[in-house]
Fold these 4 entries.
Entry 1:
Amino acid sequence: MGYIIYRRNTFLTGRLTLIRTKLCLGGARSEGWSQRAIIVLLPNPIETSNVDPMAIAPRAASRSFEASLRRLQDRIGYCFGDRSRIERALTHPSSTAEEHSDNERMEFLGDAVLNLCVGQALYDRYPKWNEGQLTQVKSAVVSTVSLARAGECLGLRDVSKLGKGLPPGEPLPPSVYANLFEAVCAAVYLDGGLDAARAFVLRTLGPELKAVAENGSEPNHKSALQQLAQRDEGVTPHYRMISASGPDHKKTFEIVAVIGSRRFPPGHGRSKKAAEQAAARRALEVLEAELALSDGANGSDNGEIGNGENGNGHHEALATAGRRRTK
């Protein structure tokens, strides 16, 4: 005759408990757990209606936050020893009334860390530049627009604590993204020191720094397109020369931007760099137009115009593409 050993993991289904079983026949355990299950009436049934949903919700929210925080650390490329630092960095002043619990002080420190890391990188990489050139490029790299784009690409909004004045359905102002990014820089610096902060800053802002340095303080369409393509498609754009016409001293280059298998309208310029910037600008214009149409369709379905949830982040990046505003 066989008997039953109950496994410990059970779950409630109404007034019954569904228990996976393991059969022991003739004193020997059978191989593996039985695919069958039995339903056992409890002597004192537990009503699931007695379980307070409000007690379950915070635990679920906590697990979701933990997962989001792990993903953010993967994107940052740094694992915090003291997690309270990154949590405070992501706490916007609008979300708390508690004194000294938001990220404002970390924004202050992060601004200084950013300027030091970017300034030293420029100083080391361009020894022939004068003070004016160094200042001009640094101002563009650490501008609100540049930091906002970096903060959006890291997905800081998804894991930040924001107040009611910054609802999920509305675009996040660039200044808020930039402040969050500065606070995260401070968190990395406080947790891991200057080397860790420098690695994070240059890994995140390195493409922007290089592109601005090559292109002066002009709008950096290539950087904007690269960040957008990497975030949304997981690929880096490349550029293909179609033609070069005219005499050597007055050549005009025609170049197209390519993302994956998609080719965008060509851009023209007197140099390859200028033509690539023009090609990136054309690609951004096409993507922006497509997103506007998509948002319009979503807005019609929702009774609103241009406020589709999926379009907000894209428009934030595209609206800031090609503009520079120093802090």
Entry 2:
Amino acid sequence: MITDEEFVFDPETVKNDIESVRKKFEGLMYLDPRCDPAFKALLDSEDSLVNFLNGIMHLEGDDAIQSLTYKIQQEENFRLPEPYGVKFDIGAHTKVGKRIDVEMQQVKLKEYIPRMMIYNAFLLLRAKNDYNKEIGFHDLPDAEKEKFRYKLPEIYSIWIMDHPVDFMGKGIYRDEVALYNKSNVGKVDCAPISLENKYIIIDLTKFDKKFEELESDEDRWLYILKNAGSSRSSIKFGNPAIEDALRRIECGTASEELLIRQANMTDYINVCRAAVAESYDDGYEKGCDNRNTEMALDMLADNKPIEEIVKYSHLSMEKVLELRDSQATFSAK
């Protein structure tokens, strides 16, 4: 079966021993919740997850989530026609029918936007399938089926990014993405043409509020995600759901299993980040080489002096002469 590449790694496959793990986290109050095992432990209770989602989704009053069911590491497999699978970090289903996928992303993948779209497609298909089962769609009379054939529940794809999100403007750490028609974009009354499918994107690198500046539950949860892993003292908000969540990732009381999984995943993420950085560096260098070569070819076509081409293209004299000879050979043909 084809699988999403990120969850091929199993934190159990790289073994840190418990003594070395305790030294890694020595002096720290909490495990870093930006790392997968601690992130899932942080939100592994209904009360904490409800409080987190109401904050991130800006739900209040009658719109607020009251209860939900959820699954950590929710696996979704479809046949398309070949089997293809993804795993949501946290998949949730509210009492009133909202379907939610919550993802924590530490490593910036080159194709992170298509990845978000693929996960959203799986969430939409799962939500539609579950909705049809709930209403007994296949047992409905044909006339009733037509009313519900394309009806969708509300779905939310929540992506928390611990890396810069390219399409979000300067200073913007939270954004919502939905389906809009191009002719209305930019107008005062512009609104999504569909309310059933929405992305909420958080760029943690742009969230820089200090403790005393926190005003909402969203602020408090984002502060925890960004800062708990480096804190050497307790973080107190007077919110039972948040404080319960923080207790689950305390270094001093976390289970050996969680500590080892966190250390293993941390090591793996560091390796991935180094590999991705090297890949971006290589891509940048190749891009520069390509641009410099194009400039040199344009200047050769304009019969600019070789010394001038070397100066402005930043290519070596040998490379420029090679391009000139190649260009002359091609022209002769």
Entry 3:
Amino acid sequence: MAFTAAALRPFEPRYERYLGIERSVGKSKGLQSYQEPRLLVRAKEHVHLRDNPKPMSQRYVRVRSSSGQLHYGLLQADRRVRVLDAPPWRNGQATATELALEEYTLLAPCAPSKVIAVGRNYAQHAAELGNDLPQQPLLFMKPPTAVTAADMPIFYPPQSQRVDYEGELAVVIGDRCSNCEVAEARSKIWGYTIANDVTARDLQRQDGQWTRAKGFDSFCPLGPWIVREIPAGAHLKTFVNSATQPAQSGSIADMIFAPDYLVAYISQAITLLPGDVVLTGTPEGVGPVELGDRIRIEIEGIGCLENTVHAKILKAPVSKELALQSEV
């Protein structure tokens, strides 16, 4: 399916990056064509490419309207959002209501009850940190309060001297999943989005367990939307600021444990609910961030998640005397 330059002209550069639009520029300037990658289907044992590729995938978003209402919706080519009457994994149907760009704020594409993450799921990442390969998935959790949206700040906590980015593929659960085998778990995966598993590396090493290091507010950017399918062997790249060379570059085919296996494994211990998120691990190339850094994670077939690092400003402590005076 080809899109003309005129059809996409309303998109600002940032949205073009989000949408994963590839420009093919010849002698005449502008967008010549967009070729959608071949899409995967879930086979019984392996991931296969479709023989006949589909048009560009639908983008499912979650937004807050200017009136303060929360909605799930479908992002249109002109950036309007067609509102759904329920979350899409609850068979939400499109309504007649549309929101223009200036009428909504983009949120994280789901509001999980929990985020289950997987450590060392790429061999080269385990090696770069000096760790052995896990014999079973290495699980940890990030609280839902860590979730933030595309373009929202990542807050650098004063407790840490080393905060790292970790670009990851995130799986969104569409149905209750408990004690599932792999074949059943595969049907519980509703879609995919992008995540940044931000980590206070020094606190991770200091604490021995990872809850604090992985769980600060804003340490789980998600988005900007969910798609139902991604290319088999989709590539993940992480860029810092305006660098043209990615700091991270890997393929989801290099995972030690595949997403459906991870969902099944997790479900043997923890019930996954609709809207929950599983982070599938990060490839090699993780590194530190500094205040003001802009981290951009791209995954083929999804788009781009971008966030900037800000200082976390703590509220000044209020003395007991001042607190008592304020109550008088």
Entry 4:
Amino acid sequence: MLVATICRRVTSAFSKGFGAVALAGLGVGALALATLPAKANQIGEPVPWGMGLQAAASPVKERIESLHDMVLVIITLITIFVLALLAYAVMRFSAARNPNPSRTSHNTLLEVAWTVIPVLILVVIAVPSFRLLYFQDRAREPEMTVKVTAFQWAWEYEYPDHDGLKFESYMVPTENLQPGQRRLLDVDNELVVPVGKEVRVLVTSRDVIHSLFVPALGIQKYGIPGRTLETWFKIDRPGVYYGQCNQICGVNHAYMPIVVRAVPEAEFTAWVAEAKRRFANDATQPAEPRIAGAEGPGRGGQADEARGVQLAAGANDNISR
């Protein structure tokens, strides 16, 4: 009795203390949110020790979050139920309590229940899942189109609706980072789009399979040589949204970041005019990827290509032997 009393008091004190801390934390959080600018630009990027999904910046990502939350509740309930059932079975049907165990091998009602209930759960998950798949499949009424071509190890962006504006985007090497730029995430040329416009994205590849992945926008689409796949997004607030190629595509796979910058319509129009002048001459494009190679900073392009040829030759030699 004494031990039980002590445990109850400790638990009560801990609960009260934890509750006070939680309330204080909520108060500080609410104050911080209240002091934020109402129209602050959102930054979609990974954060240290981050848990959960990045904040949604598009209708597709909002639906992904909704489906994720619903499935999380379902699997949590299933886990708790199974754990409780196992605990009950261990205690209720232990050898000490049942020296003569039951010989029952069939129970029609129970067998029907454990077949029908999982089917119903799968249907509950499948309906919103298929709706989401069809919703994110392709744009209904696209207001502009962007073609994304992946290659080892960078991206090419083309705006067919803006006189074929086209440019390549490379990761900024660590030694060239400017204050405020993010290592392994920032690029020299960002993909700029207007806020509130439904953007159709056509994805393909020049060489191997790549993958266009921007978590905050809820898009992930493979770039496959010889094929053009479609996805879309509609960013509802200005901001900068980071992504990466998430399909292993070679030695410099880790150096293919994506930066999508959403700006107001007027700012986008001005950017298009400036970009047309900037990228009018193909000579402005880099001759080779300006990225950190596998053998150290500053290497890449021809060095990596030569290394790849050597590795392939060695592999072929081993096969022939």
